[in-house]
Amino acid sequence: MNVIYTDFPIPKPYNTTEILRYCKAENSTLEVKSLLNECLSEIDGKYKNSVCYAEFNIKKLENGIDMGFCETKSKSLEKHLKNCEGIILFAATIGIECDRLIAKYNRISPAKALMFQAIGAERIEAVCDAFEEKIKQKYQNKSKMLGVRLSPGYGDIEFEMQKSIFSVLDCQRKIGLTLNESLIMSPAKSVTAIIGIGENYEY
Amino acid sequence: MNIREYIKSNFLFLDGSMGTLLQAKGLPVGEKPEVWNVSHPEIICDIHRSYFDAGSNLVCTNTFGANILKFSEEKLEEIIFAAIKNARTAACKSKGTQEKWVALDIGPTGRMLAPFGDFDFEDAVEVFSKTVKLGVKYGADLIFIETMNDCYETKAALLAAKENSDLPVFVSNAYSQDEKLMTGADPSVMVALLEGMGADAIGMNCSLGPKALIGVAKKYLEYASSPIIFKPNAGLPTCENGKTVYDVSPESFANEVCELMKNGVGVVGGCCGTTPEYIFRLVEKSKEIEFKTLKEKENTCISSYTKTVSFGGNPVLIGERINPTGKKRFKEALKGNDISYILKEGIAQQEKGVEVLDVNVGIPEINEEKMLKAVVCELQAVTDLPLQIDTADIKAMETALRRYNGKAIINSVNGKRESMEAVFPLVKKYGGVVVALTLDEKGIPKTADERVAIAKKILSEAQKYGISRKDIIFDPLALTISADNTAATETLRAVNMIKNELGCHTLLGISNVSFGLPNRDDINSTFFALALENGLSAAIMNPYSEKMLGVYYAFCALKGLDQNCEEYISFFERLLPETSAANLKTVDANGKQPLTLKNAIVKGLKNEAARLTVQALETVEPFKIVQEIIIPALNTVGIGFENKTVYLPQLLMSAESAKEAFEKIKEALKSEKGENFATFIIATVKGDIHDIGKNIVKLLLENYGFKVVDLGNDVSPETVVKNVVELNAPIAGLSALMTTTVPAMEQTVKLLHEKAPWCKVVVGGAVLTQEYADEIGADKYAKDAMETVRYAQQITASD
Fold it and tell me: Which ipTM did the prediction report?
C-alpha cells in the first residue's frame, strides 16, 4: 500500500512582476500597482497551502505506462518518464479564501477579481515550487533525480486522469480538495501533477 | 438502552479505523471499500467484531462513501443493507458485555457546494437523504456524520438526517492544523450551527493525532453543551519496510485521549491508523476516570460560515440598510433584480463596522421568497458577517433559513399565537436566535410592564417547542416620540426590566424613535446611548451615521469595554483621513492639475469618479455628462487597450469607475422613468472556469446600458436556455477559453437555436476564431468586448 503524505510547504515571497504578467499588465500604471497592493494586503494570512502526495512504481507497457494508480497512453508522459522507475503524484492547493475573494469581487469589482486570479495563479505555482524543492532534497539524499512536474491537460495527458488522482490521493480528506463532474477542481487555485523519479535521471 | 440517555451519564467508546484494516486485508488501491460489504462480508464483520471485542459501544458501518454520486440506487441499497447486517452480526457474535450500537456512517460527498463549487445545497441534501432513508429502512440505531471539512455540507447532511429520520445524529468535523475546517469555520462556528439544529453529539475526527487536536477539543469544551466526540488519527503515517505505520502508539494514544475525558469529553474513539488495540487500551486506561456532565452554556450566539457573534459583551451593531422602506433606489434595485446594488450596501456597512446585516427585501411587486433566497446566498458569497433574516413572509423565512450557511438571527416572532405557531418550529428545525417583539393580538401595549408580561408569555411558549431562552432576544419596540412623549421612556424601562428581571437580551430598531421629527440623528443617537445604559444588547441602526457610531464607541470606552480606548481612537482616526484624502486627490498625481471626471475614469479612480460626478451634476445635465465625459473617457481607454497602451486591469478599473459615475447619474435621474434596457445573457460554457473575458464584456455592456444577467462559469447548455427563455432575452453571449470546451459551446448554441430561435448568440474567447464560430453555428463571432457591445446595440436597435 502506498502511504499518502500531507505536507505544508512554505512558498517564496510574492513575485509581483509575475502577478502583473498574469493579468497582462507588465507596464502597469501607479493605480494598478496600488490596486495590487490593496489586494495583497486583503488576502494576507488567508492561505492554506497544503499538499498531499504518494510515490508509485511505474511499469512500461506495450502500449503506454502503468503508473501504479492508473494506466496511460499519453505520449507526453511516455517521453518524460522514459528513464524513470517511479513517480511522485501530488495535489496542491492554496485553499478556498482566494476563491472567496474572486467570487466576491466578480460581483462588485472585476478589476480586483482579475488581480486575485493573478495572485492565486502565482501563489499556487509558488507552493508547487516550494514542495518540489523540498522533495528534490529528500530524493537527492537517496541519489535519485526528479523530473519536471506534468499535469493532466498538459500535452496529451488525459484530463480524465483527474478522477484516478483524486481517488487514489484521497484529496478531499487529506487537503479539502474536490473535483466536480466537469473535472474542475475546487478550490480553483490548485494543481495536480506527476513528477518522474529516476537514477541519475535528469530531464 | 436509548443512546441519547446513555451518553448523558456514561462514556461512549467508538470504534477505530475501518480503512486501515481493510488495506491490511488487501483492499486494492482505488477500489471502493463500501463494495466489500457485499463481496467480503466476513472480513467486514470480523473487523466490526474485533472492535466490539476491544470494548467499543458503537461501530460505524463501512459506508463512508455510500451515496448516489458513487453508486446506482440498486447498488446503494444492497451496500447499506449488507453494511448494517455485517455490523449487527458482529454485535451479536462479540462476547463483549457492554452496550452495543450500530451507526450508519456518512462521509462527505467529495463535491464542493456552491457558491465556491458547482454543487447545489439542495442536491447535497438529496444525496444524503437517500443514504439516510436506507439506513433507517435497514435498522441503524443512529446516524454518524463524520470527517466533514465544510460547514455548509455538514448542514446539508444534518438536515437530511433530521428530515428523514428520528434517529439520534452524531456530527463530527475534520479540522486542519490551524484549528479550522478547510472552508474556514472554527469550533465556535460549528458548535453554534450544530447545536442550533439539534445534533445529539458533536465533535472532531481524522486529520491529526490526539495531541494536535487538543486545542480544538478545548474549544468544544468551552462552547458546547452537547456531548463531545473525539476521534483522532493515530498521528501521521510513514512508510517502514513497505508498510504504513502511524507515529502515535496505542499506549500514548490512550493516555492523551484520557486527559480529555477527565476534562469532560464523553464520546471517544479513533480514526485513520487506529486499530482494535488502540480502542482496547483506551477502554482499559479510562476505567478509573469519573464521567463528567458538561455544563449547559448560556451564551447567546449566532454565526456565519466562519464567524460567530455573541451577545452580552460589547453591544452588537446590526446594519439596517438592506431594507427598502423609504428607499427609492433600493426598491428600484429589487424590481430590476439588481442584486449587485444590494451586495454593495452589505459590504459598505461591513466597512463601517457593523457585525451583523439585517436583510429585508419585502416589497409587494416582487416574489419575496425568491428574492430573499437569492440575496441571502449572494450576500454570503461576498461577506462573512452573520445575517438577520428579516421578513413577515413565513415561506420566505423558511427558504432563507434553509439556505443560510450558519446560525442566523430570525426577525421576528411576536406574542400572537399565530406568529409563534409559524415561527417557533422553524427556529427549532434550522436553529437561530429569534427576535421576539413584545406585542400580541391586542397590539403594542403602552407600558413597560405589559410588554414584559408578553415577553414572559413568549418565553414559556418557546419552551414548549424546546427552544432555549438563550436563543430569544426581545425587541420591546421603539416608537416615535412625536406621537407620544412617554414612548421612549417606556421602551427604555422595558429594556431594563427584560434584562434585569428576565435575564434576557434585548434589541431595538433605533431609528423609529425619531420618526416625524427634524434632525433625527440627534434624537436617535441620544436614545441609543440611553438604551445602552439600560442594558440593550444589540441595535439595528444606520452605520452611515457618524453620531450613532460615535455613541457606540464612546459608550464602550466609558464602560471599560474598550481596552486602552483603542477602538474609540481608531474610529476617530478613520473619520479624519477620509476628508483630507478627498482634498488631496482633487489634484493630479503631479500635484498641479486638478483631477477631472474624465481623468478619474481613465485612471480608474472609483471614489473620485463618483465624487466628481456628483459635483458635475450640480451644473451639468446628466445626459450631457454621459455623452460628453463618460463615454469619451471609456472610448479613450478602449482605444488604448486596442493599441496595447492600456492594460487589462486598468481597463477594468476604468469601467468600474464609469459604473460608479453611472450609479450617481441614476440616482439623479430617480424621478424620471428608468430606461427600458435590453437583457443580455452571458455565461462561460460548461467545463470552463475562465471568466475574465466574460467579466470584461459584462462590465462594458453594463456601461452601455444593457441589463446583463451573468450565469457564471461552467454553465450547462440547459441552464443557458432556461434563462434565455424565462427572460425572453434577445441576445446571449458565450465564452470559452479552452479548446476542450468548444464542443460544450457548440451544444449550447444548438440548443439555443432549437429552443429559443429568436435569440442571437454571440461567441468569444481566446480559442475562438471566425471559422470556429461559423462551424458551431453562432450568429456572431466577436473578437473583443467592444465588438460585442456594437453587435448587441445593433441587434437591440433593430428590434
Answer: 0.89
